[in-house]
Structures are given as structure tokens and as C-alpha cells.
Amino acid sequence: MSDVDVEEVLFPDLGDLEIANIEIGGDSVTVTACACAPEALCPACGAGSRRVHSRYERRLADSAVGGRRVVVKLQVRRFRCPATSCARSTFVEQVAGLTFRHGRRSLRLHTVLQSVALMLAGRAGARLSSVLSSKVSRSTLLRLIRAMPDPPTTAPRVLGVDDFALRKGHVYGTVLINIETRRPVDLLPDREAATLARWLTEHPGVEVICRDRAIAYAEGARLGAPNAVQVADRWHLFHNLTEAVERCVTRHSTQLREPAHVPTPEESAAALAELEKVTTTAKAARGAHRYADRTSERHQAVHDLLAQGLSRREISRRLGLARGTVRRFARATAPEELVVGKWQGRTSVLDDYKPYLHQRWQEGCTTAKTLFDEIKAVGYTGGLTVLRDYLRPLRSGAQPQDRSTRPPSVRDVTSWITRHPDSLTTDETLKLKGVLARCPQLATTADHVRTFAEMMTARTGHTQLAGWIDQVKATGLPELVSFVNGIGSDLGAVVAGLSLPFSSGAVEGQVNRIKMLKRQMFGRAGLDLLRKRVLLAP
Q: How many domains is the chain partitioned into structurally?
């Protein structure tokens, strides 16, 4: 390759640069060059000058070529400013596309490192820069991010608002998203109503605001953009409805099990004898449910003291409980609401080996130690006692209860009611029909949920929501009535959320992206750095 070809590869479109020499060493390429523009413009006043004051050499690191780092020895000139009113008497010329003031890297290498810093931050970016033969420290990359100018902030027509954790459980900020372009607009240092209101006042033009049901964002949107339409997020609405359904199912959890078989007198006598035999074992096993017993006792104690007219603060002092705990017990109408999901739907370490155990039992192998050694060899991680407890019903002639024959849990029934009917299996559909047939209140709840889901999917909240609320209140189901009372305090945003096509999905995606960027930065994700990466990274 000729020198002219090398020059075109290294410095294309640089007409103001004259290459004097190119030296290729073992791991580097050294380029000696000089600036040859006929004149230079003063950076302070913009006046052109041809009067050369002096010359000196700059050393610039450039993008690597062929795995070799490139060093440019550039001779530049210092010019005298011809304007007598200019504050600068002399200035140094800059080669467009190659140099910038006080830079020890070429402009293109500087741009590459900025992109690496934005995408990978400090440590990962420093490792990549070493691979690119342009090694810099992680602190240098973070300084490059901080030095970048903020992008121009313009108010979008449709704005998405949500919070994110700077320090989970302690410090939170607010992310603003352009819903139409799905790009972040700005990051705010907290999630206070006044901060959002101030931003909206400084950036007029927002017509629609998508948010969750946080009171602070509702108030901030009302103060900062009173004419904007507030849209409550549909996911949060249906999630709140699901929580209400779960509380309703919990209240009727005794009706989830199929009616028990009515035993004959002989069967009753045999069951009584068996019950007396295992009384001691049952008492010992009862300790496994000490959490539920303790919760029930505390719930009863709290409600007894409330009935006596004591305040929650006094109850907290007497029982030695936190005020938040007393508040949760006071709000719960039944202790089952406080222990939902604690033991339901648990899996057993033996589940994967039960078919094999049944097969070996039918073949005549009934020794627990032998079966334990066999399943231990293929990956069983439990203990021998677990296996013996499972085999005990087999030795008495009974079959251990299979998970498929167990009564559905509260979470199972809640899932069946709130999911689309087409997503249920045949077995789940049959079980749900049985539960709804045994409990008319849950059947009514399922009808209301189905109507709400259809309304949400079809975006017909502006015509159907008021009637749906009246129907729910007429049925008197306390959990659903509590839900409709909650949405009544934010009715305008709820109606818009069930009628307009906008949602906070793009905002939730950006919140997840912020979590990823924070993890990349290993504890150095302060708001200034995080804001630059969120707004400027591609």
C-alpha cells in the first residue's frame, strides 16, 4: 500500500492536514503531520487570522488500526487575533475532524470512547477499550460521560411517569418517558408532587399523562398540567382487582374443597380408632403451623382491644407489636387474610420420584432404606425421614394424596378467575366450575371480573364503567366494593385508562433498563451519571 493510500485510510476528508511521515512499529503506528490551513478562526470573536505567532507539537492518540495503536505527532500554529477588542491576543488552530481544545485524543477516538462509556460505563468499558488498543481507565470513561452536554429537553405530547429506586427502600427518583417515541425525556431527583409539577410548568405542551395510581403523581400532574388528561395504567388497575379477588377467595377458602364423603358408622369407628392412634403425631406436627396459630391469636387480641375502644397506639404498646403490624391486623376481617400463601401450593422434594417409588412398591420393594439408596443415586437430595413419612400411608393400605387430587389453593382459584378462559386447561376449567357452583359469592365475583376484563380490552370504560361500579356495589361483596371505592377517588384517570389506547408499558420497560444500568455501574450510579446514560445511550 502506498503512502497516499495509508493517508486516505488513516485520515479521510482532512484536507487541512499534511502527512510528513508514517512509521509502523511492532504495536504502534506513529504519524507525523502538520496543519496547513491558510488561516484560522479565533474561538473567542470568530475573526480570521493569517499572522502566525509560533509553532509547537501536539501528541494525539487516535483510533487503532490493524490492532496497533496510532499516535499522531501534529505540528500546530499559534495565531495572533487581529481584533483589537478581543480578549484573546493569540490562539491555537484546530484541525476540523481531528482535534479539539485541550484534547489529547483525536476527535474520532474521543467519540468512540464516549459511546463505549455510555453503553458499558466504567469497568466494562475500560476492558473493551483495552481490546480496542485504546486503553483508558474507568474513571476517565465516567468523566467523559459527565462532560457530555445534556440533550435538549422538549415536552412530549404524551408523557409517561413512574418512579425508580436509586437506593431501594430509601431513595427514589422519577423517570419521564415520551410514550409515542418510547424514549426517556428526563430524570427527576425524587418522586414528590411539587417536583413533577415544577417540571410540567417549565415544559408546557403535555396533553396526556400516563401514570400509576400514586397520589403524588396525580397531584403533581393536576398542579403542573391542569388541562392534561391523566391516564391510569391498566396493568395496575387489573392488579388491584386481582388483589381484591384474592381477598374474596380467602374469605371463602373453606368452600374450595369438594364436599366430603359421608362415612358409614363402620367407617366412622375405624376413623376414630385411627385418629386416637395418631393423636400424638398430630400434636407434634402442629408446631409446623405455629405461625398460623400465632397469627390467629394476635388477630383475635387486636380486635378484642379495638372492641373495648382502645386506640391502635395503645394496642401496640400493650401487645408489644409494631404500629404497622397492629394496623394490618385491624384491617383484616379474618386471620386467613394474613397467612394467605404461606403453605399453599408447596412442592415436595419427592415429587419427581413418586412415580418411581409407586412402581417399585408394586414390584414388592417396601424397604425404605433400599428405596432411599436407589433414588439417592439418581439425584434425590432429601432425607430418609421424608421418604419414610411418605411411605407410611402405603404400609397402612392407603394411597398417599396426589397433588392433582388436593383441593385448589387460594392462589390457584384467584388465577383461574382472573385469567382468560381460553388460557385455562380442561382440568382447571372443570375445577373452577366446581368451586363457583359451591360458592355463589365467588361466581358473582368471577362475573364481575370477566365484565371488567372485557371492558378493559375493548376500551369501553367511558360507557360501561359507571354501570359496572353500580352492579358491584349492589352485590355487596366487601372486597370488590373496597376496590370500586378506591378507583372512585381517581375516577377520571381510571375512565381514561379504560378508554384511551395509552398505557405505561413503555415506562415500565425504561424502569427495567435503569435497573440494568445501575447494576453495570457497581454502586457509582449517582443521579448525574445515571441521568446522562439514560438520556444519551442509544
A: 3
